Amino acid sequence: MILEVKNLIKRYGDTLAVDNISFSIKEGEIFGLLGPNGAGKTTAIDTVIGIRDADKGEINIFGKDMKKHASEIKKYIGIVPQDIAIYPDLTAYENVEFFGRLYDLKGSLLKARVEEVLEFTGLLDQKKQFVRNFSGGMKRRLNIACALVHRPKLIIMDEPTVGIDPQSRNHIIESVKKMRNEGSTIIYTSHYMEEVEQLCSYIAIMDHGKIIARGSKEELKDFVTVEEKTVITLDGINYTLVDRIKTMDNVVDCSVEGNVITVISKKGTNNLNNIIQCIIDSGNQIVSLISEKPDLETVFLTLTGRTLRDEVTTA
Ligand SMILES: Nc1ncnc2c1ncn2[C@@H]1O[C@H](COP(=O)(O)OP(=O)(O)OP(=O)(O)O)[C@@H](O)[C@H]1O
């Protein structure tokens, strides 16, 4: 294991931000910490890497006790903080160079590494530009470059795509995929379930300071009891058809709005063919059909009765 956390607790006054969590991360794993705003993800990460002191718990990184060997362990960790930590009055190159020097890189090795990470984050052409003129997305990418310059063994990315343009977001997602394919070990926190679903090999879902579920995305989807949602637009609604669908085997719910029927089927039943056959038999024409499998959003909803997104928009 690259990292092992046992019974971690962190309070801010009366707020129990991290409530007795345990988790471990294997080498080469992209470990996703998914949860709504305020779930405790940043506090968990900050406590693990020693930015904040834990109230209780054991943290071992690279097989060593973090409390006793913090400065040695930190040399091999790359942190991409949620709040961008770069210098606006330096150029992109100078920023990365600065962080490289903090890790004792010098001379031609430093120069090569700076160029390498600027290239990796798509900023090599802008290396001489002052960061104050950068877009939010470019600043986030530079933040990543600074965290990677010393080739860390463990990379921690805290909400690296918050508040940026789609192009930079895609760039970051593709960079993480590239790192994954090269065997990097990454902790990736996010409240965007699509990102976590796409990138992470193992996922822990946090809510109110606790890890409420964990596993691969396939394992997490086992929590969901409803499998398929099929949304069908017809040329006209025939209520006999609706009644027929409602009484079909494995149909959990069937609702109608205008000419659109939404059918929810039980998990693992692959009901799509039966639904289509029922519509054809009734003489209706299908105008369009969308069939969705459950995602991590559905898992969160099943576990908490709330959506990740609602939490985000009301935060
Ligand atoms: N410095 C602080 N002082 C007091 N309370 C804090 C502090 N930082 C966070 N909290 C509280 O601790 C809880 C967990 O917050 P945290 O930022 O760790 O969550 P998060 O999942 O990372 O959310 P976000 O994505 O919004 O950062 C929240 O209730 C938050 O209000």
CATH topology of the largest domain: Rossmann fold
CATH level 1 class label of the largest domain: Alpha Beta
The topology string of helices and strands comes to EEEHEEHEHHHEHEHEEHEHEEHEHH
Strand content: 25-35%
CATH architecture verdict of the largest domain: 3-Layer(aba) Sandwich
Structural class: alpha/beta
Protein name: ABC-2 type transport system ATP-binding protein
Pfam families: ABC_tran
GO molecular function, one term: ATP binding
Main location: membrane
Task: Provide a concise account of the structure shown.
With 315 residues, this protein is an alpha/beta fold.
Q: Could you walk me through the main structural features you see in this protein, from its secondary elements to its overall organization?
A:
The C terminus is likely disordered. This protein has 315 residues and is an alpha/beta fold. It is elongated and about 75 Å long. It is built from twelve helices and 14 strands. Strand 12 and strand 13 form a beta hairpin. The protein has a six-stranded mixed beta sheet, sandwiched between helices. Helices cover 37% and strands 29% of the residues. It starts with a strand and ends with a helix. The protein folds into two domains: 220 residues, Rossmann fold (3-Layer(aba) Sandwich), CATH 3.40.50.300; 68 residues, Alpha-Beta Plaits, CATH 3.30.70. The structure holds adenosine-5'-triphosphate. Adenosine-5'-triphosphate binds next to strand 2 and helix 1. One of its GO terms (cellular component) is plasma membrane. It is found in: Cell membrane. Its main location: membrane. It holds the Pfam family ABC_tran. GO terms for molecular function: ATP binding; ATP hydrolysis activity.
